[in-house]
Amino acid sequence: MIEEIKSHLEEIEQFNSTDATEIENFRIKFLGKKGLLNELFAKFKEVPNQEKKAVGQALNQLKTKATDKINALKDTNGDDNSNKVLEDFTKPGLDYPLGSKHPISIVKNRIIEIFKRIGFALSDGPEIEDDWHNFTALNLPEYHPARDMQDTFFIQQDPDILLRTHTSSVQIRYMEQNEPPIRILSPGRVYRNEAISARSHCMFHQIEGLYIDKDVSFADLRQTLQYFTTELFGKSKIRLRPSYFPFTEPSAEVDVYWGLETETDYRMTKGTGWLEIMGCGMIDPNVLKNVNIDSEEYSGFAFGLGLERIALLLYQIGDIRMYFENDVRFLEQFKNEMGM
Predict the structure, then answer these.
(1) Which of 95, 100, 107, 109 is closest to 326 using CA atoms?
(2) Nearest to 71 by CA among 34, 31, 14
(3) Cα 235 to Cα 243: distance, rounded to the nearest angstrom
(4) Among 282, 220, 277, CA closest to 254
(5) What is the tens place of the pLDDT at every residue in 294-340?
(6) In whole angstroms, what is the distance from residue 139 CA to residue 287 CA?
(7) Going by C-beta distance under 8 Å and a sequence separation of 6 or more, which residues neighbour residue 281?
(8) What's the whole-model pTM score?
């Protein structure tokens, strides 16, 4: 066994390399779990007692020589470059690419900032709502035909509990707890039992506004919407078309004149130049009555729009499902919008 150890010592002495892979293979051969040294130490148990001292010394010498040789080669050839980088704490870290805000968040923040300039505060409420706040208080009593407009996710165990279909429920809760004047925005997720397609989704985002005070008129509503469309789209030409919403009277749909400068404009507006962007109207007196606000003394207006639709228009996104796919390539396109 002594002769075998001597041959391995000669192999260690003669070994020399600048290749990191060769050095690692050499280490594994001698010092690995299944390496020569472990095999020799296993055989050491069978060595006669009178020879154990000499063989043991030779084995220790072999282990020391192998360890020293490997360390020397690593130091000489700079194999451990990763440690050298870590030891220099003055060097910059790895350059990880920055993400970006989601286009829905970008548009929401822009709209909030626009209305904050004219005194609107933010208000929030639960996404799991009851029938009163989501329907009845908004002039939609049970069996009202207008409820057919809202395909709703009801909780099976309790038909009075549902996922809110609009953020108007937040406005009801706010009016119950606060006296006029009231000027709030209510952004948030809403839910409708709709098929998912390029233009619709069962979950989407709304932002609704409410203003109640003395002597609020339809002219105030129009001026507010004129200001908003100019700030958001850079387009000031709007029109209000008569419409119907149970909680406002009169009600209107708001169109902005987008123009017909490009082929995309023609496609988006179907050749008219006009785009529908939101609904609005004067608060129905019954709604004020439901939240104990005197409709003889106060009046107000409300408006609401879908954030997905606005983002589709602003960024020319072709499919609403892209918002929910978590594709980094899609999100990277909005890095330059983060400051908005």
Answers:
(1) 100
(2) 31
(3) 23
(4) 277
(5) 999 999 999 999 999 899 888 888 888 888 888 888 888 887 775 44
(6) 6
(7) 221, 243, 245, 247, 248, 249, 250, 251, 252, 301, 302, 303
(8) 0.69
